[in-house]
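Troubleshooting: if your tokenizer reports a length mismatch, compare your output against this known-good record of 471 residues.
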Amino acid sequence: MHIDEAYQIVGECGKYQVFLVFLLSCQNFFVPMQMVLMVIVGATPNPDVKVEQNLTTIVTDFHLENEQWKIDLIQSLFMVGYMVGCTVNGQLSDIYGRKNIFLPCFTAVGVCNILSGLTNNWKTFLVTRVFAGFFVGGCAIAFTLARELIGAKVWNWAGMLYHISFSLGMGVLAALSLWLQDWRLICYVTGGLTCLLSFSFYPVMIESPRWLHSVGKSEKASQLLESMAKKNGRNPEGIDWTLSQLEEMKSSTLVDLFRHKTLVFWLIMGAFIWSTAALIYYGLTLSVSDLTPNLFLGTALSGLVEVPGSLLSVFLLNSPKFGKKRTTMFTFTVCLIGLIGMAARPDGPEWWRLTFGLTAKLAIAANFNVLFLYCIEIFPTTMRTASLGFSSTMGRIGAIIAPFINLTDTNEPRLPYIIYSITCALSIIATIFLPSTESCPLPQNVEEALSRKSQNNKDDETGLINSEFES
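Known-good structure output:
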């Protein structure tokens, strides 16, 4: 049987799968505490804001009040580590398995965060942040694993749960920081909790049956699917769990992907869109002071506004008039409106900045939710994590640049938002050249990924372009 047929027998999202996806979503709750840690830990406390008068950060402890470039450098190099981690760990997970790479990376993130709290100067702090970034890149594998443990019908809802946990994590980081008021304690607590959660994963997390099947371990995949069916309360007796063999049984690398012109074209377009989304997302996240002078309130709102963004993305994905491609274009468009509003009046009243700033953040967060789902469906299983890792890696280039683009507001406050608006508009155009993946099974190999374009030829605006490009 085809592996998608096996999942229909196991259950698209039975109680055992819900448990596993919930655990992986809990992991994503702690990821934003690393990604946006510098918003709090690297902040310069505002003495005019009562709740910040007792706050200690690396700026106050390491005397970096007049050296903002060092704070931006730390955040940028964290993203460099993340960029390398996405590529390296993504490739390793395609070869050695999702679980075997993800779990050690998750534990290492907590260890690095604890070590960050032990540092006594900004240079050693920077080193721990680079390593933390590398291992956070490995945690991105959890999304692929969660996706491959369930059936296609519930991918959108699982993606929403996964990304909502990220948004809530930002809000909790703000509340935790408000309570602790000490950057070292913030590092110790978030790192310790991350380690404790990771330890609970080892005895219960399973490997992806889809990955096992894609690399030729169909017998193991069949046994795992049968076990999942039993834990879901299904009766698998009398069912032949033998999975149909794939023509491509070996795990592929990015080198293999570059042998197919259409896949390369899609990869380039997707990488540009990722870089734009990351540039805007982290640019807005790191500039919460543009919204309100209260650091904790700005951080919390910036994170919590992503929750309705996730709900919006699922609503649009389930709408017959949208789907992943059109939702990507729509969310970019709404984000562009918010960015133009910020560029028009960067020094406007607080209600103006909150309205347009949070609108842009909501839309780009929804866009990020869809990009994870969209990019995974474009490429085959044997190249899925590597291609997602590459796109995410290119996205980190935008995240690396974001802190320094925000520095351009010294003489012209509207300049960062003008830059974000231009890149956002270009990404809307780039999305037109990507294929539609609606109503198509998840491709297991290159042939299935390439043949899908003929299934979408009537609805896919790029059918003719991609067909000519491949020839």
